Amino acid sequence: MSRMRSPGTPTSGLVTSRRTLLRSGLTLGALGMLGACGEDSKPMPKLGAGEDVWRRFEGTNINFISENTAPTAAIAANLAPFEKLTGIKVNIVNLELSALVQRVALDMASGDAQYQVIYADPYQVLAPYSKGLADLREFIDKDGYPQIEGGLDDFIDTQLKAAGKFADDGPVYALPYDCPTMIWQYRADLFKKYREPMEQDLGFDPTPGAERTWDEYYEIARWFNDNADEVSYGTGQQAKQHDSLMCDFSNLLWSYGGDYFENGQELGLLGVQDPGACQLGSDEAVQAAALYDRLLKVAHPASGTWDWDGVGAALRAGEIAMCPNWHEFAASNETAMPGKVDYAPLPKGPARTSDHYGGCGIGIANNAKGAVRGAAWLFVNWATSPEVQLSNLKSKAGGGTPTRTSVYDNAEVKKSEQRPTKLPNMLTGPAIRTAWETDNIGLRPKIPMWNACDTAIFTGLSKMIAGQNGPEATMQDITERIDGIVERGWVA
Amino acid sequence: MSTALRADPTEPQTKQGPEPAQRRFRLTFPATLMAPGVSLLALLSIIPFITLIVMSFSRVRLLGGLQLDWVGLDNWTRVLQDVDMWVSWWRTAVYLVGTLGLEMVLGVGIALLLHRVVRGRGLMLSLVLLPMFVAPVIVGLLGRYLTDSTFGLYSWALAKLGYEGDILGGSTSAMTAVILMDVWEWTPLIAMITLAGLSGVNPSVLEAASLDGAGYWSTLRHVVFPSITGILLVAFLIRAMDAVRYYDIITVTTNGGPADATKTVPIRLFETAFRFFDFGYAAAIGLMMLVVTIFISKGFVAVLQRKG
Predict the structure, then answer these.
(1) Residues B254-283: pLDDT tens digits?
(2) pTM of this prediction?
């Protein structure tokens, strides 16, 4: 524009100053952005002689992306001790799991690491994106970093493998952070009240436990439907067309001796890239599906719209007498119905009792470089330490249950397994200890294409429940779909 | 800025001006001002569009930066042979017809009623328009709570009337529920557009019809509707294009279930892209949706043009 004016016009100086101002602003902005980038790319500081390893990364900011789970709520409410210990500031981003998976995938694709600490769901993050996570052995037992209190052996072994490793027993991509496990949750007051008439009518002791069978569970549910006024229905199931439906059905599948793929337990512990042919066409799987279908016919009619939250709310609202659900709902149950809900391992099938494990770990983005990488390790180490896990158990903001044996051995924690208790999630202690035994733990396949397989499973089951397909046709349909998904393979 | 693109003003110019060939490359002053914005918009639209097309012929890798492996027509063959995809198109069509049909009938009806109201029309119009200003995701959440069988008001009311099932748990009832939620939110838009059309009907024509002895229904049929057909088609077009890509309410309430009963194409697209991270196949689905939307809009535009 200035070319249109003749040199020396009174306004030319103003134009120049505006332009200069604009340039200055842009330059300052660019410098600011570069400065911000520099914050993330500070080099790894060297540890001075006698310096506290926990203070090595003082002044660093890191981001932790997590599913909105109970342990993260507890940690978010109590970050001050970590910041005081390390001088590191932690920003926590809490998301619903599917939103978390999207952000993590796109963050990894960017080649940058906006989120340095990642809640690594074994099936949706660890298996598909293990290459995007750092092998934590670069910190474990290495000089310059604080070591894991009690060592890796302090973590419950099945959980360390299931939540922390993929395909190879060597690399550790995540440390076990939470451990929700499906157990039998029931109205102890109603079982106590109706035990005798129920036993007379049904011909067996209805007391919940691993010695009950799924057929007996079905009979108990029907009995409550017909005889108890306190609840609308005997059982509720998390049978919404959702991940929860697969979780719910899997308990029956495994207890009947069926599985999604061959070597299911091994595949659940460590995982593989290519799981081979789907095994859902087996007689055991069809029998499990048939019983699940029957169970849904006597369950609360809203079961088809409930995920784990829905069925948990229904139990607390007095709609149902029992349900299989994640053990971390115990604290909410105790708040809503103090002393009325008790816990047991899930019923057994012809093969075994099986309790679905859904724990996750936390790991570090492999793209994180320099000081933030080290700072991320300090946080992962701290957040999974026995002290923090005990503190989480006591937290009013959340909780969860520990992933370390030393915490379960703690006298205060052991005492809390009986009422009255200040750690209500520990009321599930005896049930989950049984559930986590190697022969009882239920592990879904840890494969990179699990999300697509999971969707095929819960969609097929949803159609079965809606009466569109019988159990055999459902299992056959799901098998064909999963084989197609596995055949297409996975590229990360 | 425009002068910078012109020939050097210090050079002598003929009275006839520059040659025609030179004139073609000149930008007018307003065009020059708009050029950066228009170029940016073009880049923002064209680059993603071309990328989407390329992705639809590729397998997309995310780790270590975006990489595209050429797979030829694989994704397109798959999308055309995928039976589930066609079933989703059928459900989308049901959703489209259900929402549009009800919204048009109710919207026009409400507009006709409001048009006759003289006192308090502004207040009534405000009340009628309120649902339109609620975010669709909130409409979904409200719907979910109201139909919850444990504490939902609608479930309770229906149970009193003898309905024993769960609203979002049955295939037919779930689809009906999500259609009705959409209708609740967007009928006011149709009503507002129709009301604007009714205000534009020539009063002298209405007066003439009245003098000729035409009754209310006859006037509506032979005078009013022909006058507002164009504007109704525009309303229809806007909602039709919206309904094809509608996502929010369904994902919040049923997420495509039960038994895939509400899994429309947008839900399947989201699932493919952001749950399975199969971006190549998702790109093919997205482009298919684009083609369908273009066909629908072309159809409406053709009808509009025929109506003059």
Answers:
(1) 989 999 999 999 999 999 999 999 999 999
(2) 0.84
Tens of pLDDT, residues B62-110: 887 788 999 999 999 999 999 999 999 999 999 999 999 999 999 999 9
| Residue B185 within any structural domain of the chain | yes
pLDDT in tens, A370-394: 999 999 999 999 999 999 999 999 8
Which structural domain, as residue segments, surrounds residue B200? Answer: 88-275
Q: Do A241 and B271 touch (CB under 8 A)?
A: no
Residue B10 lies in a domain: no
A241 and B255: CB-CB below 8 Å? yes
Among candidates A102, A452, A459 on the partner chain, residue whose Cβ is nearest the Cβ of B274: A102
pLDDT band at A228 (very low <50, low <70, confident <90, very high): very high
Task: Kindly state whether A46 is in contact with chain B, defined as any CB-CB distance less than 8 angstroms.
Answer: no
CATH classification of the domain holding B258: 1.10.3720.10
Confidence of residue A211 (pLDDT cuts 50, 70, 90): very high
* Total count of domains within chain B: 1
Do the beta carbons of residue A86 and residue A377 sit within 8 Å? no
Q: Looking at the domain assignment, is residue B59 inside a domain?
A: no
Residue B268 lies in a domain: yes
Q: Could B168 and A305 be called an inter-chain contact, meaning their C-beta atoms sit closer than 8 Å?
A: yes
Pairing mode, strands A175-178 and A360-364 = antiparallel
Please check whether residue B148 touches A, CB under 8 A: yes
**A313 contacts chain B (CB < 8 A):** yes
